[in-house]
Amino acid sequence: xxxxxxxxxVGGQHRGMVINQEEAPQVGHRVELGxxxxxxxxxxxxxxxxxxxxxxxxxxxxxxAEGD
Length: 68
Hints:
The chain is an all-beta fold. It has strands spanning about 1-10, 15-20, 30-35, 35-50, 55-60. The chain contains no helices and five strands. Strands 2-1-5-4-3 form a five-stranded mixed β-sheet, with no helix packed on it. The protein is elongated and about 40 Å long.
């Protein structure tokens, strides 16, 4: 299954992105979006899976770098 994930970052300067990945995002996991590391806080299915594709939306927040 390929997951097409729309990532939106709240409380940060990152515009978000759409990424194709082989594993579904999970709440609490971290994802690297460009140079920004973010923690996933919500995952929603956009439409039911079609064939080998699932369409998801993930909301995440920036994670502060060590020492910040």
